Amino acid sequence: MASLVARDGSQFWYIQTKTSGSWHRERTSFRIASTAETRKAQKLAAQLTLTERAQRGTVAEMNWDQWVEPYLKLRYELRPRTLARFLNGWTSIRFFLREKSINIPCGVRREDCLNYVAWRQERRTGLYKAARNTAIYEVKLLGLLLGEAYNRGWIVQNPCRSLGISRAPAKVKPEITLEEEAKIRLALEKAPRWMQVCFDLAMATGCRLSETAVPWADVDLDRGQITFIQKGKRPHTTCPLQKFPSRLDDV
């Protein structure tokens, strides 16, 4: 592993490396007294360390296919929806990395992170076309993975940090009209009762359908209220049960 060494009587940093069992020191042009030049010397040492690891055959463990999915599954094991979304996003990112022949984290450049947004919005075989905000979301996922690569000592810095890419304004979701609601309720008459209950809950509260899967612990029969948990584990304003008593009687 390359390291910085200060020698008596010298104002410059030395890089110390080990080759064939012997230590070697080489003077750099970076001065010890300069904070900016010290950072450059540290970056050089880190780059040489990566080269040493590659020569020792550790490139195989850096390969995306060896560590990304196990890492995501370990980190988000208790958040299955987040895990599913991240794995889906990783499928698109991996498509890009294969196309660019980027097999390990240290091959990712800042321009790759920036170019991904436009690349992701193009239609191509084997991958659906995504909107700008989806592409930006996936770049953030790539940044998360590169952050882990940095923590493992595989890269010198995270090229996905501080890209300054702005999200597009979110589209206003259209309101369900009375005619559309009537069609939905007609179709739900042939569906299981729980689906009718979920639709009633969503219409009464504005919750996502996925958020209407409320555990009984959040249903207060004494007070006649339901507490919903929104995205990010935020509690939703409680809703009176009286809004939909005919459905809940069957649950």
The mean pLDDT is: 84
Structural class: alpha+beta
Radius of gyration equals 27 Å
Q: Which percent range describes the beta-strand content?
A: 5-15%
Identify low-pLDDT runs: none
Largest sheet: spatial strand order:
1-2-3
- What is the helical fraction, as a range of percent? 40-55%
End-to-end gap:
64 Å
How many strands in all? 8
Globally, the shape reads elongated
Number of helical stretches of at least 4 residues: 9
Number of domains: 3
| SSE order, one letter for each helix or strand | EEEHHHHHHHHEEEEEH
For the sheet with most strands, the description reads:
3 strands, antiparallel
Features:
three-stranded antiparallel beta sheet; alpha+beta; 251 residues; 9 helices
